[in-house]
Amino acid sequence: MTDSSTPPSAFGTEHEQVVFCHDEASGLKAIIAIYSTALGPALGGTRFYPYGSEQEALADVLNLSQGMAYKAALAGLDLGGGKAVIIGDPNTLKSEALLRAYGRFVQSINGRYYTACDVGTFSPDMDIIARECDFVTGRTVEHGGAGDSSVLTAFGVYQGMRASAFHVWGDASLAGKTVGVAGVGKVGRHLVGLLLEEKANVVVTDVYAPAVEALKEKHPEIRVVADTAALVREPLDIYAPCALGGALDDEVVGVLSAKIVCGAANNQLAHEGIDKLLEEHGITYAPDYCVNAGGLVQVADELEGFNFDRAKVRAAKIYDTTLSVLEHAKSEGVTPAVAADRVAEQRMREVGRLRSVWLPKS
Questions:
Q1: Which domain holds residue 311?
Q2: Annotated catalytic residue within 29, 83, 186, 259
Q3: Rounded distance, CA 73 to CA 156, Å?
Q4: Run means of pLDDT, 10 residues per run, the chain, 362 residues
Q5: pTM here?
Q6: What EC identifiers does the entry list (predicted)?
Q7: Residue that is last in its domain, among 127, 143, 159
Q8: Which of 68, 88, 286, 329 is the most exposed place for a label (fewest CB within 10 A)?
Q9: Is 259 among the catalytic positions?
């Protein structure tokens, strides 16, 4: 069971710490990345995914951990940004031994990083990790946790979508709007339910057919298309990418009819400059880490002793944050992605500097 901490300069990043974790007996290969602890301990989920290579996993965890830092800052939380990835197929590799080994690595960082659920990991997994680690959130309700964080993630995206609608059309109502949802797993399925409650027209797709079938059975009024390529060519008012990152590239933007992009996926912009391309096509982009912060709000609330109603009130503020970012972008003549970064960086800078002020221990 070995770990190694690599200086961030080796990757040409501003990350504070990157830890490689390896436990041969259980098959664990993981990477933990801490981008910033300027506002508090880093919090971010553990993604369990069959990456093609360690380099691919490293690139993902570096991007995701930076996104978490900006997300926490923009959401007004006293938390930094971190993320972890476990390399492998969770359907075949996940075991109690592997999760407990991973928990010991998280424990060894001594509170600089708190873990939670992400793609491929769930609240019961967090309960197992917590048997070896004190720095775990997103646990099951039975163990005093918040349970499934996708509920408030979807609620936050929904609030961000309403704010975007108000910014674009002068009316926050989504009734009668056609919304395309790509990915109806953990978050997407909850988002679809919220949209249908507001009488929106919903078109969906997902690479996992059983997820689509289950949703169609529950909500027969939704329309299903074959794949994302077909979905983005549909006549949409709003496009909601809710699967993995990189959803917005040149080809997608070129065919998209939607006036708003607002979804739960992390790192939606495939490369630098896509935000400008969206703007040139008259598409308002609600920055992903701004609108998908509901899950982070939920698991962060667990650190205080979870109260769902309190967490939902906090997640509802994503409406105001999104509207503020969009208005900031318009007034400063920059894209929403740039505006969101500026607001997050300003808070990390202004509040983070206070950490240098010495206070006596109580």
A1: 150-347
A2: 83
A3: 16
A4: 59 83 98 96 96 96 94 96 98 98 98 93 96 96 88 97 98 98 95 98 96 97 97 98 92 97 94 96 97 95 93 97 98 97 95 75 58
A5: 0.88
A6: 1.4.1.23
A7: 143
A8: 88
A9: no
